Amino acid sequence: MIDHKKYLGDLIGGSLMIRESQIIADLLLKKPDASQWNNAIVDENILQKPSVASAKRNAATIKKRLEGFDEIFLQKLAYSGTEEATQLMFAATLMNSTLLADFMRSIVSDARRMFRESLNVDDWLHFWEGQTRLYPALGDMTPSSTYKVSQVAFKVLADAGYIENTKNRRLMNVYISPDVRQILLNLKREDILRAMEP
After folding, report:
1. Beta bridge partners of 118
2. Would you give the end-to-end CA distance of the chain in angstroms?
3. Each residue of 49-81: pLDDT tens digit?
4. What is the pTM of this model?
5. CA angle 55, 56, 57 (to 5 degrees)
6. What phi and psi values does residue 163 have, to the nearest 5 degrees?
7. Which of 12, 58, 78, 94 has fewest C-beta within 10 Å?
8. How far apart are alpha carbons 114 and 44 in whole angstroms?
9. Radius of gyration (C-alpha) of the chain in whole angstroms
């Protein structure tokens, strides 16, 4: 069984950041060393962030989510239109955070089966309580951290188009592009495809 940190992944690091993810994917394709990476993120400020700290933080989060992907995945992410790039980044985020993938496969899937119109905060709270029984260390997180996780989770779902926004959380239909589907099948990640098609 994976530990709670690996299960949570870097979800707390932020939402999908599509534009920034495409820029980072393009940079990763150039296989930068530490100095070239720092130069691009800090000196050139390719992410166009107002501070060095936020540029470094966002870049580190995206890099973690994209670790281990091949050039085909990175190229598709870097040079696709917004819809496909969003689906690829959502897939990468689900692979990084098994917790969020489980939320999609259980809670979101159940809500769809029951023809519910929207998700609510209780959905997340019940899910979180259940997962803390499996991963007790999740229960040791501070209330502010657990709140941040829930906020980011719903923001990711909104960015990916699964809910209308983080206020009403109205469920929306998402159709996975054939190219994204094929990439996930090639990666043998049917589990992620199931999470994306709840």
Report:
1. 170
2. 24
3. 999 999 999 999 999 999 999 999 999 999 999
4. 0.94
5. 95
6. -130, 150
7. 12
8. 50
9. 17
Residue 77, C-beta contacts closer than 8 angstroms, at least 6 positions apart: 21, 22, 25, 66, 69, 85, 88, 89, 92
Q: Position of tokens 């994209």?
A: 66
Please state the length of the chain: 198
- Residue 16's H or E segment, with its range, is none
Whole-number percent of the chain with pLDDT over 90: 93
Half-sphere exposure of 187 (CA within 13 A, CB side): 21
CB contact at 8 A, 127 and 103: yes
CA angle 132, 11, 197 (to 5 degrees): 85
Nearest to 86 by CA among 175, 198, 187: 175
Alpha-carbon distance of 78 to 58, in angstroms, equals: 16
Structure tokens given for 156: 């990711």
Cα–Cα distance measured from residue 43 to residue 45, given in angstroms and rounded to the nearest whole number: 6
User: 69: phi > 0 → left, psi -120 to 50 → alpha, else beta; which?
Assistant: beta
146-191, pLDDT tens digit by residue? 999 999 999 999 999 999 999 999 999 999 999 999 999 999 999 9
State the average pLDDT for the chain: 95
Check residue 1 and give its pLDDT: 60
